[in-house]
Amino acid sequence: MRPFRSQPPILPKISTMPRQKTEATLYRSLYQLAVEKKRLQEELVSLEQRLQTVTQRLEQIENQIQGLETDVKQIAQPKPPETKTTQPPALTFTKPKPGSVSTFTLEY
What we know:
This protein has one helix at residues 23-76. It is an all-alpha fold.
């Protein structure tokens, strides 16, 4: 995760040489300000869309976290012991008689 950097304020572009106050330079300044305004508005729209996307993803993550926490609680709860216990049938073995052969078939 990137550390948050505070951004410096957006400064206007300053010309190193002062311009003469003529009609052309004033229109040029108006044009530059209009272009900068449009760029900043587009950037603001882009940031608002990004904010909306991030907010939606955070909501999805929060819902997933709540669902998983619910699952953990259900799994962690001890199950009540079963009242009906069945024992396997008892096996009895008999010794075969000497000389007798017993066969069996196994199907699988």
